[in-house]
Design brief:
Layout (H helix, E strand, L loop, with lengths): L8 H15 L23 E4 L3 H12 L4 H15 L9 E7 L5 E6 L22 H5 L10 H12 L4 H14 L1 E2 L2 H9 L1 H4 L3 H7 L12 E2 L2 H13 L2 H4 L1 H13 L9 H5 L4 E3 L2 E5 L2 E5 L6 H12 L4 H4 L4 H21 L10 H5 L1 H8 L34 E8 L4 E7 L9 E2 L2 E2 L36 E4 L5 E8 L4 H13 L5 H5 L4 E4 L2 E5 L3 H4 L1 H6 L5 E4 L4 E7 L4 E5 L1 H4 L6
Helix pairs in contact: 2-3, 2-6, 3-6, 6-10, 14-16, 14-18, 14-19
The protein binds glutamic acid.
The site of glutamic acid (GLU) has 15 residues, from loops.
Length: 583
């Protein structure tokens, strides 16, 4: 791969244009960010970063330009997102990171939030055994898991970081202290969710005026409290997050909002541990694809969808053909049936990972798919090692996440999905950041209708099942070509598999692949993205037996870096610019 033009000028110009669009017509004082180097002034050819937010992306690029590697860039981007995309992710939440090198090594890391030791199966139940409403569960201490992003960042940095730990915090501290302009996306969420974003006095003071109106796009938010938290962690390391005043503030805030015994304690926070996990890998049309295993369902679902589709010639069918996407939906339905039943935290329940990924098992599942008729009903299969005395859980559709990706001059790829679960997480804040509501990713009902336990039920110290699917891909010659993933709750594996198909089967750019019309089955309901050719093709899908189809805006937000053959392309979901993405 000699002679590559990494971090193309094109990408820099697009970033600046986008920033200019965001700032257009508003009173943002650029002098406030004067100390931050403008991306177009930075030397290129050193790698690429993709983030949903251009300011966070610049933070990652700043690390590459300072001689840092993809690990440094990814961590700096995650930290900056805490400031500029507070509705989506941050140090009050968790995430998963996968790293793939030019010589084919892969490692994945788990920074998933954990339930306090005092949580049990009945965590989301009322005394009479009924399940709390989703809103009651979210806006309380019940939903908050011990945050994992800082511990995971420290673990990966200790192993692979090149720049100093403190250097990674510099852009985020600068953005928090000097201020960042509210963009249109954040503004829309502030308007829609004042009781949530402004649930705490601190959130209210940050984002709303005296009359309770959301500050407009362009208003510069200064978050000195967060800058101080960052400074403490930059100086003293993760201990400044997981012990001392920060841990006491998190535990106190969560406990005060938890309506039952078992609330988070400083001991829960001090005992948090990030983990190295086995990545799950497979091939698709001779490309090697690696993703995140349990407690995420993401990697397994992506590999199953792709594996079940491999016997079909999607390229010959064509990207605009309803049959292509009918096949995709059928593979997704089969993969999601397995996911609902089997996937959970493998430290607590037995997850038949190798059975689910066994090529013979996947071929058997694929054999159920017909190109001209939708399956009337879909059920989970029985892979080797499956525990069958379990039931499906419940999973709401929620979105508050950011996917980011980075690649460096050694062609090391880092794919990182960071989350606080729903928009503004639980609404609770500590240290200047939002605390996640990740525990609502557990099945709030501990048992299924038949009384059997749900694998993804709440247990003390357990990690809730995730959909996050940070993925890295090598081409048939073993060269790194793609780091991809998405935000959007249960849609994440579907988005990620679709982007991979767009790149591999249809030869699309990352941006085109991420921008493909979205389609997904949620149980018996199928959705197609409103305003795309798929909406017009609904009769075609109906003719294939899909009956309950609605067209609506897609709850999706993908991101990737992709090798084009001559340079690394950085892509964020085009829906972000159209204002149609998820938080
Ligand atoms: N909490 C979700 C998960 O871990 C992600 C939510 C989202 O993407 O918005 O799967």
């Amino acid at each position: 791969m000699a002679g590559m033009k990494r971090a193309s000028l094109k990408a820099s110009i697009a970033t600046s244009l986008f920033a200019a669009l965001l700032l257009g017509g508003c009173s943002f004082d650029t002098a406030k960010l004067a100390s931050a180097p403008a991306p177009q002034d930075l030397p290129a050819r050193i790698g690429a970063v993709s983030s949903a937010d251009p300011l966070a992306q610049d933070a990652g690029m700043e690390m590459l330009n300072a001689g840092g590697n993809a690990t440094d860039a990814a961590i700096a981007t995650m930290l900056a997102l805490t400031v500029v995309e507070p509705q989506s992710s941050g140090i009050g939440g968790g995430g998963f990171l996968i790293r793939g090198t030019a010589d084919g090594k892969v490692e994945s890391f788990d920074g998933r939030e954990i339930a306090p030791a005092g949580a049990a199966n009945d965590w989301f139940l009322r005394p009479d055994g009924t399940v709390l409403t989703f809103d009651e569960s979210v806006k309380s201490g019940l939903s908050v898991g011990v945050p994992g992003n800082v511990a995971m960042a420290a673990m990966v940095h200790a192993k692979y970081g090149k720049l100093s730990w403190a250097r990674l915090f510099e852009p985020a501290i600068r953005l928090a202290r000097s201020g960042f302009p509210i963009n249109r996306r954040l503004y829309d969420y502030l308007v829609q969710m004042p009781d949530h974003a402004g649930m705490s006095e601190f959130g209210k003071s940050l984002f709303y005026d005296q009359a309770g109106r959301a500050y407009p796009a362009g208003h510069v938010v200064i978050n000195e409290t967060l800058a101080k938290t960052f400074e403490a962690v930059a100086k003293a390391g993760p201990a400044a997050f997981y012990s001392g005043p920060n841990a006491a503030e998190i535990a106190g805030t969560v406990a005060a909002a938890t309506p039952r015994p078992g609330a988070m304690t400083v001991a829960d926070i001090a005992s948090y541990q990030s983990k190295g996990r086995d990545a799950v890998c497979g091939t698709y049309r001779r490309y090697r694809i690696c993703g995140m295993g349990p407690p995420s369902s993401g990697g397994i679902a992506v590999l199953q969808i792709l594996g079940e589709l491999e016997r079909f010639d999607l390229k010959a069918l064509g990207v605009d053909n309803p049959t292509t996407w009918h096949l995709f939906i059928e593979a997704q339905r089969l993969a999601y049936a397995d996911r609902e039943l089997y996937l959970a935290d493998s430290d607590f329940v037995s997850v038949p990972v190798s059975g689910l990924l066994d090529p013979a098992y996947i071929a058997g599942r694929s054999a159920l798919i017909s190109a001209d008729r939708s399956l009337a009903a879909v059920a989970a299969g029985i892979p080797d090692g499956a525990e069958t005395a379990i039931a499906d859980g419940d999973e709401p559709e929620e979105h508050g996440t950011s996917h980011l990706a980075a690649v460096d001059s050694a062609n090391t790829m880092v794919s990182y999905t960071s989350t606080i679960e729903g928009p503004f997480g639980s609404g609770l804040m500590a240290g200047g950041f939002y605390l996640n509501n990740e525990l609502t990713d557990f099945s709030r009902s501990p048992t299924g209708g038949d009384g059997k336990p749900v694998a993804n039920r709440v247990e003390g110290g357990k990690r809730p099942r995730s959909s996050m699917a940070p993925t890295v891909v090598w081409d048939p010659e073993g060269r790194p070509v793609l780091a991809v993933g998405a935000a959007g709750g249960s849609t994440i594996p579907v988005q990620t598999a679709r982007s991979i198909i767009g790149v591999i089967d249809f030869g699309l750019s990352a941006r085109q692949a991420i921008g493909l019309p979205f389609i997904m089955a949620f149980g018996d309901q199928m959705m197609v993205e409103k305003g795309t050719w798929m909406e017009l093709a609904i009769p075609g899908f109906q003719a294939l037996g899909h009956t309950q189809i609605t067209a609506r805006p897609a709850p999706v937000k993908g991101g990737a870096v992709k090798w084009t053959g001559s340079e690394w392309e950085s892509a964020r979901d085009p829906r972000i610019e159209g204002g149609l993405d998820v938080p």
